[in-house]
Design brief:
Blueprint: H1 7-20, H2 23-30, H3 34-48, E1 53-56, E2 59-62, H4 64-94, E3 96-100, H5 103-110, H6 114-120, E4 125-129, E5 144-149, E6 156-170, H7 183-186, E7 191-193, H8 200-206, E8 216-219, H9 223-231, E9 236-240, H10 241-249, E10 254-255, E11 261-272, H11 279-289
Parallel strand pairs: 3-4, 3-5, 7-8, 7-9
Antiparallel strand pairs: 1-2, 5-11, 6-9, 6-10, 6-11
Helix pairs in contact: 1-2, 1-3, 1-4, 2-3, 5-10
Amino acid sequence: MALRPDWLSALAAFEAAARHQNFTHAADELHLTASAVSHHVRKLEADLDVALFQRHARGVSLTAEGRQLADAASTALADVDSVLRGLRSAREEQERVRITTLHSLTYTWLLPRLPAFTAAHPQIRLTVDTEAALTRFDESGPDLGIRYGPGHWPGLTAQHLMDEALFPVASPKLPGLATLTEPAQVARLPLISDLSRQGWHDWFRAAGVHGARLDERYTFSDTTDALNAAAFGMGAALAREHIAAPYLSEGRLVQLPGPSLKARFSYYVVYPSHRRLRASARVFVDWLLALPSA
């Protein structure tokens, strides 16, 4: 006997009723009424000309034939559900973009802009990795990255995203800040550093300050930690323009006297040269490169 299309909903109702041994509980699971579940089961029994349940005052129980059909229906529906989940997972994975970037850039620059991307592309899912170590772009690795550097890395295609500039910042509550009028006076403050290749010595040289004894009192491995330390009044930090922007706009930090030093490095969107970007990753790259601040 071929499986008729109109039996599918009846089999689903029967399988739930058999699993619960209760029509009301099956109805709750399927968002039906108990009478609708009972109707489906009775139709199935009539078509098969066999009793699937024994009905008694305290509820229902499966007959031997009902148990046989319940086992088969449960296995079949579980198999179909597994395939559907696999297909859905494969589609969602195709729409996922895996990104590796710096924590500081993610926190201060990328995250405030991501709501606009997700609103425009709600079907694309994002995974953002902010490990400090350079990530390998192998088959199981990220689709793309945002890196700060010279713009050339072996095996990677690099597209320029934006340049960077360095200048000193401090909390507006830092004692004596109001009397600072020239770069040489900044050298007298407790200085906060990160692990960037360009630091205070480069900035003071560009500002024309020579021979000053610098008190580099605090060093942080993460740029946002250095800026947070400055915002808490621990001293002056040498900030990157794009990383410091939200601190400045919120008034947590202010720029100190002196020039903005063009950074040696810039930000680049990078991805493996040996493999083509998937469609969802290409959409994200194009969105990044079109940003006004890029």
